Amino acid sequence: MNFLSIFRKHKKAVAKRSYAGAKIDRLTSSWATTSQNINKDLQAGGKVLRTRARDLSINNDYARKYLQMCVSNVVGAKGIVLQVKSKTSRGKLDQKSNRIVEQAWAKWSKAKNCAWDGRLSFVEMQRLFIETAARDGEVLVRMVRDDSQFGFKLQFLDTNRLDENLNKNLGNGAVIRMGIEFDATGRAVAYHLLTNLESAAAAGARYERIDADNIIHAFMGERPEQIRGATWMASAMSRLNMLGAYEEAELVAARIGASKMGFYTSEAGDSFISEEDDQGYLIDAAEPGQFAQLPSGTGFTTFDPTHPTSAFESFNKAILRGISSGLGVAYNSLASDLEGVSFSSIRSGTIEERDQWRVKQNWMIQHFMDRIYEQWLSMQLLNGSMGLSMTDFDKLSEIRWQPKAWTWVDPLKDIKASTEAINAGIKTASEVVAEQGGDIEDVYDQLAYEQQLAKEKGLNLSINNEVISNETNQNG
């Protein structure tokens, strides 16, 4: 074997081992081969993405449904509930201190106490937070200290106040990138917010500099060194917009087809005479049971369009499945379509979707709820409004957030599985109750209260499971 043969064989082997996705040929020549920093992408297209996402949220049914799903599944009706779990020096729950903090938190959560403008309660703020994050990709919240009862309020800010075009070198390694000021170590130290949303950097806009300690800027990062967020609908936006335009076109075509019956024709084009509307179009009326004779030389051509087409439904479903994957939700949930769905398939899809919601719940807790509670608690301990001292800060920081939970997909089987897991020692009753959005202490307190109340009323609420089981088998 000569050298040329060996070289060709080696070259062929290398070609086989290379990544197919990295090939550049006539089929992949238009595929991107270079990638720039994500912040460059966001600087160039972030505002356009945000604007289009806001338009979809107003005018596109499926985008609106997605945002509603985010709110209902991440926050829910009651919001993410605070549970203080501080303990005494003996290791037992400090019920008194926990109750004081939870009651103060509940009072602060009213709109007049927690909102800078007094408009939104804290539960409503939670809903606004997650909807803004999903639509805009990022959330801006200003923490305001004042002389009110609690001395601490929240102000939600439009993310357009962070100007993508504000970029400066401040010297000594400090820079402003897309409205955010960073020190030489790359840590955000301040936010430069537009004082007027109608202005822009090129038009001599004015900015207000706010310390980063007073701003919550939350977004779900996708790549390292990312400093701004992108809408959660980014990968599905094009399809959402095109699907909306396609449905509109089909609807218009169907409406025209249902309205127009046909056309009068003649060789000369002027044989048929009828009334005209103010735009010069011929008018002729058709009534049930009517017979008419056309003028000599005039024919009639029917207009019978086939809209919507027979493939409309299947095509619509195919596009919506792609959109659902891009949004990370089940097709049946987004499209409100349960046709032809089996129990096992929808159960599998529901469980997978709930895992996605839990990811977003944990993100919201870490980047919003925890930080709000930490700042709120500091203010209350400093001003002494709860009768507790600053030395209790670490103890009272032991908390648990109870987010929205979901009912069992198959209650009988799921309860049985949970019971067996508890009996086997691989799960606790607290975990089972928490999965359903409850607190084991509240459950036991309520059970104890009901048993005591029943005893006072002379009732016996105890149930013997073996008796019930035997009776069921006998009657079975």
How do the strands and helices of this protein lay out in sequence?
Layout: H1 3-17, H2 38-59, H3 61-75, E1 81-84, H4 95-108, H5 111-114, H6 122-136, E2 139-144, E3 153-157, E4 168-171, E5 174-177, E6 180-182, E7 188-194, E8 207-211, E9 215-218, H7 237-259, E10 262-266, E11 275-276, E12 282-283, E13 298-302, H8 312-327, H9 331-335, H10 343-383, H11 393-396, E14 399-402, H12 411-423, H13 429-435, H14 440-456, H15 465-475
Antiparallel strand pairs: 1-14, 2-3, 2-9, 4-5, 5-6, 6-7, 7-8, 10-13, 11-12
Largest sheet descriptor: 5 strands, antiparallel
Low-confidence stretches: 464-476
What share of residues is helical?
40-55%
Spatially, the strands of the biggest sheet line up as 4-5-6-7-8
- Measured between the Cα atoms of the first and last residue, the distance is 84 Å
**Beta-strand percentage?**
5-15%
Query: Whole-number average pLDDT?
Result: 83
Label the structural class: alpha+beta
Q: What order do the helices and strands follow?
A: HHHEHHHEEEEEEEEHEEEEHHHHEHHHH
Number of strands: 14
> What global shape is seen?
globular
What is the gyration radius calculated from CA atoms? 32 Å
| Total helical segments | 15
What would you note in describing this structure?
The chain is an alpha+beta fold and 476 residues long. The protein has a domain at 38-234. It is built from 15 helices and 14 strands. The strands form five sheets. It has a five-stranded antiparallel sheet, with no helix packed on it. The protein is globular and about 105 Å long. The relative contact order is 0.11.
